[in-house]
Amino acid sequence: MRKASLALAAAIASAACAATSQRPTPVMNPMDSISKLPSYRAAHDTIPLLSASRIDSLREPERDAWKEYLRRSGARRAADTAVMNAELRGVGRSAMVRAPYAGSFEITKDMAPGWFASDTARRLAQNILSFQAPNGGWSKHVDFSQHPRAPGESYFSESAQWQWISTIDNGSTTSEIRFLALADSVRPDPRYRAAFLRGVEYLLDAQFPNGCWPQVWPLAGSYHDAATFNDDATTNVLELLTEIGDGRFPYVSPELRARTRSAVDAGIDCVVRAQVKVNGQLTVWGQQHDPLTLQPTSARSYELTSLTAQESANLMRFLMRLPSPSPAVVASVNAAAQWLDARKLWGYTYDFASGLHESPGAGPIWARLYEIGTNRPIFSDRNGIKLYDWHQLKDRRLGYGWYTYAPASALRDYAKWARGRARPLGTSAGRKGILPASTSSK
C-alpha cells in the first residue's frame, strides 16, 4: 500500500502554488576499524539533534532514558563493527564491497501464495536472510534477486561505508519482515521465523524513549536521527507492530506481543504529540521532527522544515484504523482532515518524467510540502533555497513527488470514520489559481 501511494503521489499532482550524497569513500588502511569512519563515531560527537548538551538539559527521568538509548546505540554500533571487521579480516580486505544495486525492495501484487511456493520465492527469501544485518534490520536499495550476501560484502548498495545499515526508510526492514512472514506461511521454515523475530526486536530497540523512530539505527547522525514520518517510515512500523500485537503471527510469543502493543501505544502518543500547532490550532505533521522537542525540522537539503500533505494523510489513515481511538486521537484526526480538506487543488497533473501540467477538471491534489504559518506550497533545489513556484526548480524539478493524491483516499475514509465523531467537512471546492499569472501557462 505504501508503494502504491508513493507511486501515485509521484505520478500525479497539481501545481498548487505561487512563487517558491553521497559522502566520499575514505581511504582505509588494512584492518582499519569501521568505527573510525566519521559517520560512525560516538553519537554525542556527531549528532547535533542528540548532542550531549541537549540530552543533559533534559529533566530526569527523561534524561536518563535518552542516555541509556544512546548507550545502547553505541553498543550496537560497536557490535556491528566487530562483526564486519572480522569478516574483512577473513577475506583479506580493508573495506566492504558494495551490495548489488536496485530500487527499494517491495512486496508486489504478483507475490501471491502460489508464487511463494516457487523456487524463485525460496531463492529470494534465502538472499533476504543473508542480507539481514547483525543488528536485525535491513538496509535499502539492495537487489536481493542477484545473489546471497558474501563475507565482506556491504548490506548497502550505494557506498562501501557503513551507512544506512539498518533503516526503516523506503519501507526497508518492515518489508523484509513481512516478506519472510509470507514465505513462512506457504513454505514453513524456522530460519524465516527466527529472522522475523530478530527484525521485530530491531524495531523495538530502535524506538526512541518518547515513542517515535529515527530513520536509521544504530544512530547515524544528521537528519537521520530525527523522528521520521518521511516516506511513511514510522507509519509502516506502527502498522506492522499493530498486526503483531493483535496476534496475526502465531509464532510470536505472548511476551513479545505485549511488548509490541506497548511500543504501538507509545508510538501513537508520540505521533499525536508531534502534530503541529499553528496559533493554537492543530494542523498536520512534518516529514521529520526534532527527536527531543518534536518540533518539525528539515530532512534532505531540498526537504525544508514544513507541513507535509502526503505523510500526514497516511498517518491519519493509520489513526483512523485504531479500534478504540482516544479523545486525543479523535481530535488529531479531525484537525488533520480539516487542514487537508482546505488545501485541495484542482486543474493540474504532475508526473516524475515530465512534471507539472495544467489539466482542466483534474484533481483534487495536494502539494507535498507547505510553509508553516502561511500554508503556501514550497519547493527547493539541492541548494536548500525556498521557492514558491515549482517552475523555478532546476536540479530537483523532476524525480521527486512534489504533489500527491494521498489525501484524497484519506478524506474518503474520513467521511465514514467521522460519523458521530466530528462535524462534516466544509464544502471547499478547492483552488486552481495558486500559480501566479506569469507562470500559470508554463
What does this structure look like?
With 442 residues, the chain is mostly helical. The protein has two domains: 1-20 and 276-442, Alpha/alpha barrel (Glycosyltransferase); 50-225, Glycosyltransferase (Alpha/alpha barrel). It has 13 helices and 13 strands. It has helices at residues 2-11, 43-46, 52-56, 62-91, 113-116, 119-130, 174-186, 190-206, 233-245, 254-274, 309-320, 327-341, 406-417; strands at residues 227-228, 277-278, 281-282, 288-289, 296-297, 307-308, 348-351, 355-358, 366-367, 369-370, 379-380, 386-387, 403-404. The strands form six sheets. The protein has a three-stranded antiparallel beta sheet with strand order 1-4-5, with no helix packed on it. A hairpin with a 6-residue loop joins β4 and β5. The protein is globular. Residues 1-47 and 433-442 have low confidence and may be disordered.
Helical proportion? 25-40%
Count of individual beta strands: 13
Secondary-structure-derived class: mainly alpha
CATH class (first level) name of the largest domain: Mainly Alpha
Q: Encode the helix/strand succession as letters.
A: HHHHHHHHEHHEEEEEHHEEEEEEEH
Main pleated-sheet profile? 3 strands, antiparallel
Please state the second-level CATH architecture of the largest domain: Alpha/alpha barrel
What CATH calls the topology of the largest domain is Glycosyltransferase
The DSSP helix count reads 13
Shape, please? globular
Short précis:
This protein is mainly alpha-helical and 442 residues long. The chain has helices at residues 2-11, 43-46, 52-56, 62-91, 113-116, 119-130, 174-186, 190-206, 233-245, 254-274, 309-320, 327-341, 406-417; strands spanning 227-228, 277-278, 281-282, 288-289, 296-297, 307-308, 348-351, 355-358, 366-367, 369-370, 379-380, 386-387, 403-404. The longest helix has 30 residues, at 62-91.
